[in-house]
Each structure stands twice: as structure tokens, then as C-alpha cells.
Amino acid sequence: MKNSLYLRLAITVTLTFVLLGYVFYWWSNSLAQHSQFQAEQRLHIELAEHLAQDNPLLQDGVYDKPALENLFHTLMLLGPAFEFYFLDPKGNILTYSAKPEKIKRKRVDLIPINQIIATPEQVPVFGDDPRHNTRTKIFSAAPVYQGETLQGYLYVIIGGEIYDSIYSAAKADQQLLRNIAWLGGSFVLLLLLLLALFRNFTSPIRLLVKDINAIRAANFDQSKVDINHWKKKTNISESNEVVQLGDNFYAMIEQINKQFQQLKHNDKIRRELLAHLSHDLRTPLSAMKGYVETLSIKNDELTANERQQYINTALRNVEQLKLLIDQIFELAHLEDGQVSVNNETFNIGELLHDIVAKFTITAQQKSVKLQLSPQYCERMVFSDIAKLERILTNLIENALRHTAQNGEITVQITKVNEKLKVSVVDTGSGIHQKDLAYIFDARYRASNAIGEKNKHAGLGLAISKRLSQILNSELSVYSELGKGSEFSLTLSAAQ
């Protein structure tokens, strides 16, 4: 099992505080040690000088090794925190207070000694520790002269080996222990506080992960999981990034469920549409098959006139089948949403004259009056001329199909505010009120449709509706049963 975000944060914070605690301890210890060295060296800065002046042997500059060894031994007994050495002018160790096997160096660097003699106020200054190959310690030093001649240096280590061991033990038992206890207590308290804060901060994330896993297990069905607690809160203190993420997650799940429902609805519509279209496709196919079979079986028995009549009927069914298939492909292409729009400025009156002229002969054959109102119009619109022509063609074809003999079809242009309304008004059979809500449905045909029912599949209005939406327009209908219908489309006037 992978570590949770809270566990990783807790481990990271713990390790960070351990590191910071160590750095703080090291820094405070170094600072305390530096202050201690500075104070002790300042306190004993003149120790070597006083010893050199007060001792007759050193005061006269006389070098007597046995006598100095005895002197240093006595001084060390009196002050066990100090170590005494006598150096020649080059820094070589001549006499010392320690046992011979304790001495690791034969020479002491004179640069720190000269520095502290010249500027005793600049402490701490560290010099070589004769008892260690690399270690340095604070010290006190004074030159020893014989007359005007430099005889050597009295070199006193402050806080010698014995002092270090005793001081370290005491420090570990007292002050250091209290400091560590105080630091450890503060560290634990702060760590617990931060862990509690992190747990509080990460709890919404854990809840979000839980909801995501639950909604996934439910196959993204929102009705099976209660995630209403992620609705946006009005409290500003609760509107942090995690809550906003949860709110977006809730909105996403809602959108996914809406799309699922829409897909199910669309799938149901497609199945119904396929069922209707299958029926409409079978009708001309069955009729065409019957006439072709009749021609094949009774070809010799038929007169030339009957044979031609059968052929013409079969051709009409072929044309109806081709029209239906073309409309199906056109509607599918529009539903894909991959249609480009080529808007341009043009004279709407000229387009309507051309469309009306295209249907004049068909209207005359049906004894229907087709007219344009007003007869002349110079208004300019900004739209896609090809798609607008397709919409108006479908509307006029639909009006001709539902208008009986001696009826009228009028294409009207009116101005509504800053837009132009183009209407196709007929005096046909009209549409029942219960059918108006479904008139633009691809699978629907009005129950009171009259005339040439076998020549259309009800897709013309569905195509026109989709085209009007692509043009950012609105195709509306008003109709009264037995009195006629009016289909209207609003267009944007050219600026």
C-alpha cells in the first residue's frame, strides 16, 4: 500500500525538524563555546606575564630545565586547568609540565603567540596544543628576556586536558542536559502542533480521494454516491484550493452524468429514428421491387403504354429513395457539428426572387399562388447565403406539400427592431397544436399531412432547424389547423 499524503508530509516535517534541531544545537553550542573561550582567555590573558615577572628564574632569563620542570609541576598542582610550556625564540618546546609521552608536538607556531602579545584585546586567539597533532586551544603567553636578549616564551594552555575532561562531564550533567530537555520539549510540542495542522489541511484531500474512488466504483453514477458536501460553500474561510477542487470535482461529475443522460436520450432517439427511416426506406423499395418484378414476369403480356407506366413508377420510387438517403446524410453531417459558416453581405430581395422563381412552375402545376411580399426589397443582410437558401427551399417545399389547390403561399420580409424576419406563410392544412412541439423532430411527420405523403420522410424541417441554429438564428412556427402555417426566420441586418 502506497504511503498517504499525510504520512509523507509527516515524515518530511519530522526529518526537517530533526535536521533543524541538530543545526540549532550545533550553532548554539558553538556560540556558547566561543563566548566561553573569549571570556576565559580574557580572564587569564596576563597569567603568563605575571608568572614570568614573579618567578626569579624567568625574571632573570635563566634557563634551568630541572628548576623549571619543578616550577611547572608545582603550578600545575595549584592550577590543574593550566598547562605550562617554555619555548625557545623559534617556538621549540624546551620544558613542560606534562609527562613526556603526552607531548605530540616538538614546536609551537609563534604567529598566534605574537598576535596575542601585540593585541591582547582581540580574543579569542587559538594556539597549537602540544598534546595533540592538530588541535588548537586558547592560551596565555609572555616573552622571557635576559637583558635585551629574547630568551624564549612562557606558553600557558588555558583549559588543559584535565580541565576538558572534567568540564565535559559537568556540562553533560547540568546545563547541556537542561538545554537539550528544553529544546526537545519545544521540538516535540511544535512537531505535534504541525502534525495536527497537516492532518487538518489534508483531511479534505483524503475525503476527495475517498469520493473519487467511490464514484469510480459506482461507474460514475452520481445517484449511487453522496458527494453533495462538495457544493460551493459561502464561508470564505472554507473556500481554499482543496474545497475549490472538490467543488470542481462535483461540477465535473454533474456534467458527466448530464452527458451520460444526454447520450442515453440521443441513443433512444437514434433507435426510434432508425425504426422510422427503415419503414420509409422499405416503402419505396417494396414498391420499386414490385413493379420491376411485374416487368420481369409479365413483360410480354404488357402493352407498351403499361410497360412505360411501370417504369415511370419505379423511377419515381428511385427518386424518392435517393431524396431520403440524401436527407439522411445531410442531417448526419449537420449533427456532427463540422459545418463551416461563410457569412457575407448580400441583398435578401434578390435571393428570395431567385428561390420563388425556382418553384413557380411547380406551384402553377398544383394551382397554388406563390408570391413575394413586398415585391421589391433592397435590404442587405449578413449571413451564409447557401445555407439560408437551403432553409427557405425546404420551407417552400413543405408549404407546397401541405397546401391544396387554389391555395396561396407568400414569402414575406418584415423588419423587427434591428433584424429582418423572413416568413413563409401558406393557407394549407395547418398543424394541430399537439404536433407543434414535435414539428422539427427528425423522426416526426404531422398527423394531418396531406398530399404526396409517399415522397418525403419528414427530414426537411429538421434540416432547416439545424441550419438555423448554425446561423445563430431561430426558426419558429405558428399554425392553426385548417387555416395554414407560418414559418419565420430572423436574420441580422448588415451594418
TrEMBL record:
Name of this protein: histidine kinase
GO MF entries: phosphorelay sensor kinase activity
CDD domains: HATPase (cd00075), HisKA (cd00082)
Top EC group: transferase
Taxonomic source organism: Thalassotalea algicola
EC identifiers of the protein: 2.7.13.3
UniProt signal peptide: none
Transmembrane segments: 6-27, 180-198
Intracellular or extracellular location(s): Membrane
SUPFAM superfamilies attached to this UniProt entry: ATPase domain of HSP90 chaperone/DNA topoisomerase II/histidine kinase (SSF55874), Homodimeric domain of signal transducing histidine kinase (SSF47384)
Pfam families found in the cross-reference section: HATPase_c, HisKA
GO cellular component: membrane
